Amino acid sequence: DINIGRISFKKVIKELSGFEEIDEIVNDYKKSFIKHQKINRELFSLIKRLKSRYHIFCLTNTNDIHFEANVENNLFKHFKKTYASCKIKLKKPDKRAFQVIFKENKIPKKETIFTRELWGTTASHIKNMIQGVNALYQKKLIIEGIGYKAEVSGESLMLNIGFSHRVKISI
User: Fold this and answer.
1) Cα–Cα distance measured from residue 65 to residue 125, given in angstroms and rounded to the nearest whole number
2) DSSP assignment letter at 111
3) Is 123 helix (H, G, I), strand (E, B) or coil?
4) Quick check: helix, strand or coil at residue 166?
5) Using one digit for the tens of pLDDT, what is the confidence trace for 51-90?
6) Are 94 and 3 spatial neighbours (Cβ–Cβ below 8 Å)?
7) Distant-in-sequence, close-in-space partners of 32: CB < 8 Å, separation ≥ 6
8) Which end of the chain is more exposed for a tag (fewer CB within 10 A), N or C?
9) Cβ neighbours of residue 7 under 8 Å, at least 6 residues apart?
10) Contacts of 84 (CB under 8 A, 6+ apart)
11) Which residues contact 1 (CB under 8 A, 6 or more apart)?
């Protein structure tokens, strides 16, 4: 349902986190997604070469946040147009998803070739999504230095970080 836009990944994050304002969570997630994304450079090099002679379209099964991150990262720049499952409300291998491309671009089916998805990238996305659901949202605090100390006490984080007093942060 997430990959065909019936439910927004942002809505899932909002429900799981319990927060109304999730912009910071979404932005951190996008940064992490882009940082750990494995891009098939060979494939993109081929697409870049082919686009001078052919109309190259992208049909990708993805959710709203991954689509936005990929757009921001210029991942689709070599395609004439990108069709995301979360936008067209259909996903591969549903033949109606392909028919959207044929109809909108007036492309003859007999002159069309579709290639398989990047399986390594897909597996990586699934792994990250499972980890995100299981671990929910978290930020790591790294304290470096001699004599620094941090401990959780009830609903507070108590820090000894070189001041004459302990620093208390509500969590």
Assistant:
1) 11
2) G
3) helix
4) coil
5) 887 888 888 888 888 899 999 988 888 888 899 999 999 9
6) no
7) 128
8) C
9) 1
10) 60, 62, 67
11) 7
